[in-house]
Amino acid sequence: MDWFNRPDVAVVVENAPLRVSELSAIIECLLDNPLLQDILVRGEVTNYTHHSRGHRYFSLSEKGGGNTAAVIKCVMWRSDADRLSFNPSEGMEIIVTGTVRAYAPHGSYQLQVKEMRKAGVGEKFLLIEQWKKQLAIEGCFSLERKRVLPAFPARIGVVTSETGAVIHDIRTVVGRRYPLEIIISPTAVQGEEAHQEIACAITRLAGKVDVVIIARGGGSFEDLFPFNHPDVVRAIVACPVPVVSAIGHEVDITLSDLAADLRAATPSAAAELVVPDRMVLTARLQELKSRLNTALKDRVATAQDELCDLRDRLRPQRFYRKIEERKQNIADLSERLERSFSNRLVHERLILAEMKTALDSRSPVAVLSRGFCVAEKNGAIVRSAGTIEKGDSMKIRFYDGSSQVVVERVDHERNL
Fold first, then answer.
1. Residue 376 — φ and ψ, nearest 5°?
2. Residue 144: its pLDDT value, please?
């Protein structure tokens, strides 16, 4: 083996005894094997001691067949123990990361622990993630299915433990804010079979209440694990009335919180969300009453003003005055109409006179009145002397009459 070549390890000679220090050196060399460095070990905590200086001393045991058990001593120095998110306790199953070291003063070996976590938590986290993906596909966390809480519920149902302080807190808040009937559907809130009881407790309230509160006080990840189970989530989704979740502390988020219609930080906060505050309602009613009284007074005052106006308008003197005003208006309109019509007639007469003058100036009668006449033969106007002969009968038209003549002589000479 390689450790025999190290100068600080004595060579084992047949039948030659080893000194204690030599044996310790050989053991320490063996423990330097990489297989014993930063290893993961799972076991049950026993003989746990929290030293006053912050160091943690304990043993990890593994139950074997019969009454035997494999045990290894462990130590976790304060510099590493200060990073723990929980306090180990007797019987807790954990997984540690550490290195095997020899402790020469006692001639023993121990596991020097660097990190520690609860056994099974990692697996349960993975299981919750798988459930979360599947339930999301089913639409259990969809925002579209979230329901609004009733403004004035008549009865509320509470799913919780009968013996816990949760129901007392809810009753206190409801009694102070808005007393109403509370129906408790008792259930276990932790344990291996708790998820089945919680789902059944939710189902029992169907048709009996207007809203459901699922409540549990604070607890560890393990304690709250049942509220992540798909049976509980599906029971919340199937509940016919809105569901409010108040599980653990505000920082604890379970799948039930994601499926509920509303999440509250604490059970008391859930009660405040579910029921209104009667003091606030009373103050609101007083405000509305005051506003209603003011509105009624204003309406009555307006109606009184309208009534007085109608009375004034219905008085005979006012009617007579209105009639006189209308008569005066009619007289004014009649006068304006007559004046306008008279002016229009004068204007039209002037236009007609101008047109008559223009027509008279172009009239044949006016020409005849100046001494001219028109000769007609056989009903046609004679325009030339060449068209008449001696003995023709002609009609001579003057401006004031006509005469019938016979042509005795025709002179065809043309006067220039």
1. -130, 140
2. 93
CA 278 – CA 270 distance, rounded (Å): 16
Q: Domain spans of the chain? A: 33-119, 123-276, 280-314, 366-406
User: How many other CB atoms sit within 10 Å of the CB of residue 230?
Assistant: 18
Residue recorded with tokens 């004595």: 10
Instruction: Determine the pLDDT at residue 10.
Output: 45
d(CA 350, CA 345) in angstroms, rounded, equals 9
3-state DSSP call for residue 211?
Answer: strand
| C-alpha separations of 173 from 170, 213, 275 in Å | 5, 13, 9
Query: What DSSP element (H or E) covers 44?
Result: strand 39-50
Distance CA 96, CA 63 (A): 17
Question: Cβ atoms within 10 A of the Cβ of 277, count?
Answer: 14
pLDDT tens sequence across 342-354: 999 999 999 998 8
Q: Does domain 123-276 have CATH number 3.40.50.261?
A: yes
State the pTM of this model.
0.50
Alpha-carbon span 386 to 394, nearest angstrom: 14
Query: What are the start-end ranges of the H helices in 46-89?
Result: 78-81
| Three-state SS at 179 | coil
CATH number belonging to the domain at 33-119, selected among 2.40.50.140, 1.10.101.10, 1.20.1250.20, 3.90.1150.10: 2.40.50.140
